[in-house]
Structures are given as C-alpha cells and as structure tokens.
Amino acid sequence: MKDLAGRVAFITGGGSGIGFGIAMCAVEAGMRVFIADVRADHLDDGLAKLRAAGAEAHGMLVDVADPAQVERAAEETIKVFGKVHLVCNNAGVSIFGPMDAATAGDWRWIMGVNLDGVINGIQSFVPRLKLHGEGGHIVNTASMAGLLVGPNMGLYCASKFAVVGLTLSLRYDLAPHGIGVSVLCPGFVRSNIHEAVLSRPKSLGATGYPVSDAEMKRLDGVLSVGMAPIEVGTHVIAGVRENRQYIFPHAEFRDELNAVHGELMAALPDREPEEARMAVEDFRRQRRAEAAKLIKNF
Ligand SMILES: NC(=O)c1ccc[n+]([C@@H]2O[C@H](COP(=O)([O-])OP(=O)(O)OC[C@H]3O[C@@H](n4cnc5c(N)ncnc54)[C@H](O)[C@@H]3O)[C@@H](O)[C@H]2O)c1
Questions:
Q1: Is the separation of the CB atoms in 233 and 191 below 8 Å?
Q2: How far apart are the first and last CA of the chain?
Q3: Which residue, among 142, 167, 153, has the nearest Cα to 250 in the 3D structure?
Q4: Distance 17 CA to ligand 1 centre (A)
Q5: Which of 18, 140, 200 is the pocket-test mutation for ligand 1 (most atoms within 8 Å of CB)?
Q6: What are phi and psi of 235, to 5 degrees?
Q7: Does the beta carbon of 193 lie inside 6 Å of ligand 1?
Q8: Is the CB of 158 under 6 A from ligand 1?
Q9: For the packed helices 275-293 and 154-174, what is the interaxial angle rounded to 10 degrees?
Q10: Is 64 in the pocket of ligand 1 (CB under 6 A)?
Q11: Distance between CA 154 and CA 253 in Å, rounded?
Q12: What is the C-alpha separation between 129 and 132, in angstroms, rounded?
C-alpha cells in the first residue's frame, strides 16, 4: 500500500513500545490511527502523545485474546473513521524459562495474546478490508524468535513461529484482493515488554516462572540495548509501502539465519528425489508460483 495519507491504521498494543512506534510513524505518513491496548495507562499515554503530535487518534481498551473485544474494536474503528486500511496485530507478551516448568496458565496466556490475538485481528478486520475494495495491508508482529530458537524460549517461540507461518500463508490468500501482508520480526527493542506480567489475567495467574520486581528489572536491563521503537516503526511503514514479506529491522541476525539455512539444507537426505513424489511436489510448487504472481507491490 503506497499511498498512506488520509488512510486509517488500527494497531494493537499501540499504547507502548513497538505498537506506539508504528502508530507515530503511521501518523508521520499522514494516517489516522486507532490504537487498542489492554492497559489503560498505556492507552492514555499513547493517545496523549499521538494527539500532541497532531494526530487524529482514537483508542479503546481491548484484550486481543478475546475475539468479542476485538470485534467490538473493529466496529468502533469503522464507526469513528468509516474505513480501515492498515491493521497491525502487534500486541504481545513474553515469558521465559524451561518448558517443563510451564503451567497451563502460562501456555494459555502466551498463546492467547500472541497467537489468538493475531487470529482475532485477522477474523475481525480482513472482511472489513475486503469490503471497501481500496486494498490495504496487514502487519503481524512475530519476532526473530519466530525463526530462531534457544533455550528457555519454548512458549514464546511456539507462539511466534505460529505467527510467522500463518502470516506467510495469509499473504497468498489476500493477494487477489489487493491486500498486502507482512510479518515483522524484530530483535531487541527498548520497550515495556519486561512489565508484560502486569497485564496478565488473574484467571491465568498460576505460573511456573519467576515473577518479581527483580526479574522485571533484569529483563529491562537486557532490553536497554534495544532499538528505539520509532526506528522499528520506520521499517514497518517502508515494509508496508513495498509489500515486503519479511520486515527485519535488525541486522544482527545475518550469521544465525545463514547458519539455520545451512542446517536445514544439511538435514536433507543426500540422494535423488523420488520421481512420483517429486511430480506431486512440482504440482504444489507450480500452484504456489501461480499464487505468488498475484502478490505485487500494490
Ligand atoms: N521488545 C522486544 O525486544 C521485542 C522483540 C521482538 C518482538 N517483540 C514483539 O513486539 C510486540 C510489541 O511488544 P513491545 O516490545 O513493544 O512491548 P510493550 O509491552 O512495550 O508493548 C506491548 C503493548 O501491548 C499491550 N498488550 C499486552 N497484552 C495485551 C492484550 N492482551 N491485549 C491488548 N494489548 C495488550 C501492552 O499493554 C503494551 O502496551 C509483541 O508482540 C512482542 O512479542 C518485541
């Protein structure tokens, strides 16, 4: 989506960190913005800053894990602005530690926000993007942890790998409608994600991981080397304009991604492919190539 001026962006987790950075950059590009956040303080702070920057900005308290709340946010966005063109399913939370320590509540919280939140955004907003026929764009926030794994990252990686997979597939589904799709995979960003546990629902409160002020401070320290959210927002807006499949703001991952590519290739059996199976794979690849022809820089 090249022309952003006057168009409408909806951004979850838009009151803080990356979501707020995207909102500010969308405003700089001339967009009107609707931000959704589960924390009233983040929502108020984000809206105040956006309006101080001259934005036409609205917002709503929304828990993205709840499909009914996301649907109400979509209705409200249309009520306020008439249409929506850019949807950033960005809200997310994190928790780290060995997977066998996780409780059912840990899994439900992480998957509910990070994965269901993206799914709910797609369910409620894609029909509204298709309806006006002006095209649009969806950006789903995953993470480099949606492509690379490490110890103690199981729950977060599971949610983010899922976001990468569904987003890359959605790109084919929406191309015939002139709607672009990108997956945002940041590395470290200076945000408030170290405080994520503060918005965790009480009903999912039992956790197998350490939760304390000291732990939050430790995570904050790790994030202090992170990229500024505004810089991430700049990458996102450029990615939307060019309909990039992947939006990778961080250059630090070149060697690791290269190594993973090498590991994948090395895992393939060292022999010729089976002819009959290859014919089926060729057919699938051809269908994929045909679908890919529809993906343009809309
Ligand atoms: N900060 C990083 O280093 C980093 C790296 C890679 C990916 N990410 C991803 O970026 C996204 C944004 O995170 P951030 O780092 O900007 O953190 P952040 O905490 O600063 O911002 C996230 C916002 O989402 C809101 N939120 C949390 N749960 C919600 C829910 N259930 N419904 C609605 N809003 C909710 C929070 O209140 C907050 O305002 C997340 O998906 C995160 O996983 C962050």
A1: no
A2: 5
A3: 142
A4: 7
A5: 18
A6: -65, -40
A7: yes
A8: no
A9: 70
A10: yes
A11: 19
A12: 6
Asked whether 39 lines ligand 1 (CB < 6 A), one says: yes
Task: State the average pLDDT over residues 269-275.
Answer: 95
Residue keyed to tokens 């996102």: 236
Q: Which atom of ligand 1 is nearest to the CA of 39?
A: 37
DSSP H stretches of helix in 31-103: 40-52, 67-81
Beta carbon of 140 within 6 Å of any ligand 1 atom: no
Q: Which ligand 1 atom is at minimum distance from the Cα of 194? A: 19
pLDDT tens string 34-87: 999 999 999 999 999 999 999 999 999 999 999 999 999 999 999 999 999 999
Query: What are the extents of the domains in the chain?
Result: 8-293
Other beta carbons within 10 angstroms of residue 197's beta carbon come to: 19
Q: Is the pLDDT confidence value at 245 over 90?
A: yes
Q: What CATH homologous superfamily does 8-293 map to?
A: NAD(P)-binding Rossmann-like Domain (3.40.50.720)
The tokens describing 163, both together, are: 């976001």
Residue identifier of the C-alpha nearest atom 31 of ligand 1: 63
CB 185: neighbour CB atoms within 10 A? 25
Q: How many residues does the chain have?
A: 298
Structure confidence at residue 297 (pLDDT): 82
Q: What is the pLDDT of residue 212?
A: 87
156 given a catalytic annotation: yes
Structure tokens at 144: 């480099």
Dist. CA 230–CA 21, nearest whole Å: 4
16 lines ligand 1 (CB under 6 A): yes
CA 290 to ligand 1 centroid distance, Å: 36
| Residues 119-154: tens digit of each pLDDT | 999 999 999 999 999 999 999 999 999 999 999 999
Q: Is the pTM of this model over 0.85?
A: yes
CA-nearest of 79, 112, 102, 225 to 153 is 102
